[in-house]
Amino acid sequence: MTDVVVVTGAASALGQRVCALAAADPAVAQVIAIDRRPLARLPAGVSAHQADLATRDLKPLLEGATVLVHLAQATGPDPALDAEEMGDGQLAHRVLAAASAVGVSHVVLLSSATVYGAWANNPVPLTEEATLRPNPGVALASEKAELERTGGEWRDAHPNATVAILRPTVTVAAEGNGWLAKALARSSALPVTHDEPPAQFIDVADLATAVDLARRARLDGPRNVAPDGWISGDTVRALVGGAPRVRLPERLALRLAGMRWRWGLAPTPPALLPFTVHPWVVANDRLRADGWEPASSNEEAYVGTHQAGPWAALSPRRRQELALGGAAAVLVGSAAVVVAIVRRRRR
After folding, report:
1. Secondary structure in 3-state letters for 47-113
2. What's the pTM value of the predicted model, to 2 decimals?
3. Residue 310's pLDDT band (cuts 50, 70, 90)
């Protein structure tokens, strides 16, 4: 059997790797790469199409396809999607409708481990049987949950087809990290309410091999994608010489984070604060049982894609001085938030 494989989001670091792996597979007759951005550095023999999935007639692009690997995503850091923008669920609906029209029999959908939500009562680790509980205000999580729902409905309507849903943890790449990885890496701008939770990081090359396995083995159902185990929040900070963070009550931390976001003083949306406070690490047992093996550990993936901060080069005494000064600054900012809250209540 030879497949014709369509890859959406093919211009991304992940998409390029997935296209290369598919093109190298003797069981693949053709790879059709689609992205609204210019497509470059794709392997020879890959058919490239620059097209907007939200507006283009997709059936002609998917004609003859047997496998769809849907990596394109619409959701960014803004907690509220613009009215004119199409979310990941709607985008998946359009692509899957075209897949139905041409007779695609296997689909791979890229979701996210954020669909589980970051909650204080999350088990460590989360398995695929855990309930999806996206945090309010986190557009990525809610849109990926909608994508999964759309994929499930398509699967029910096509009993002879298979749909693999991949839920990767924070994905990092040497070419440049996506907004989620950047936002969480810069979360030192956010105060925390208690000790930082454990963390996971998947190298984009490992995610690409997981996508390739899901395509080749025609996996069906959800699969978490993460290296073995996890690392503590303190370890993450130590790996790149991060500064210690000041702890505040959760309500005050949310207020302060919101003000910093609105004033352009921090790159991390306040809605992501739970992901810096509560655990949301996932188990990879199911994907491991399918034959997948990560090449990089959490530590290797993180260090290979994050630069050491200036904190690492300072003497212990200077670190203490700056930590105390930072604490004072946060307390002053917190006091301002408290004053604002009190004044608002008196009005």
Report:
1. EEEECCCCCCCCHHHHCCCCEEEECCCCCCCCCCCCCCCCCHHHHHHHHHHHHHHHCCCEEEEECCH
2. 0.83
3. very low
